[in-house]
Prior knowledge:
Its main location: cytoplasm. Helix content is 33%, strand content 16%.
Amino acid sequence: xxxxxxxxxxxxxxxxxxxxxxxxxxxxxxxxxxxxxxxxxxxxxxxxxxxxxxxxxxxxxxxxxxxxxxxxxxxxxxxxxxxxxxxxxxxxxxxxxxxxxxxxxxxxxxxxxxxxxxxxxxxxxxxxx
Length: 129
């Protein structure tokens, strides 16, 4: 994707959350820098110089929160910039003072695992006849 389209997508994404796109550079590396109060910052290296997106922060306070996004990026399949940014936003929710949200996929899985088996689920174990 052309870098200017990535910048436009990033600006549009910022309109729906507390982050601002504060810097976009294409010369040395295709890099987008983001910032939100209270001092939450990160940058994204976009494919072109690299094969996949890469997220990082110069702030040691922010780095541990980026692990979820880094794991997501390195998982199978190509990711879009918006998918990566949304995962970063989810990771930073506690630092931004926003309530933590669970991943919907996990919630559905978790709901299926807990509780009594429904009538369409066969009980495991020895059947008595």
